[in-house]
């Protein structure tokens, strides 16, 4: 049985999460994560001046905050891994440092960079398309790296709860970029390359669901929400390679809007 089938069953088993009290207007909302949360290339920069985190004014966190008048603290950052939520990253503080006792909502999209998901896709697409100065192929994740990812995601959830026991914590998994099987011209990947990356992403999504359930956190399955709009679909919500606009193999505005709407319905229903 394919991991995608197992994953779909696991996500259905979770069902809708039990939302806590709706965060009132003016309350603090902390958004953490990697580029799939930050939204590089999606409309305009949220940072003045723009910086390496490439946060968008229209990523799902900004859209949700505008809908409900929340005080958004967006510390998501392109390239971030779980270690950068737990600890500092060069000039950046640990993303967790944004969470305090007054925080009423936390969303997290993280994990792909721990196992070189998008960097691996980019390197393979560059080479397959005949690009120059391509980065070397990314090493496949080891068993220890998968175990470490799950442990760090669990630590993040525990630390959020320690800092703000009453906050609503919601994991948002990775949007679907690749089709369920095969490849297409928009990806610049061979079928084998697409399948290898698909397995990596499926496992990140499965681990995120497992941690969300184990820690009593909410989960928005962006992977399922956007599956019909992968980069090979007639109406893609994700970029292929090379992208006409935005970042390669990343969600577009439509995906961020769909996630914001799903969060809205889950928390304010």
Structure description:
- The chain is of the alpha/beta class and 269 residues long.
- The chain has one domain: 3-Layer(aba) Sandwich (Rossmann fold), CATH 3.40.50.1110.
- It is 40% helix and 9% strand.
- The protein has nine helices and five strands; from the N terminus they run αβααβαβααβαβαα.
- The chain has a five-stranded parallel sheet with strand order 2-1-3-4-5, with helices on both faces.
- β4, α7 and β5 form a beta-alpha-beta unit.
- α6 runs parallel beside α7.
- The protein is globular, with a radius of gyration of 17 Å.
- The N terminus is likely disordered.
Strand order of the largest sheet: 2-1-3-4-5
Number of helical stretches of at least 4 residues: 9
Using only C-alpha atoms, the radius of gyration works out to 17 Å
Overall CATH class = Alpha Beta
Distance between the termini: 35 Å
Taking pLDDT < 50 over at least 5 consecutive residues as the criterion, the unreliable ranges are: 1-15
Characterize the overall form.
globular
Task: Provide the number of structural domains.
Answer: 1
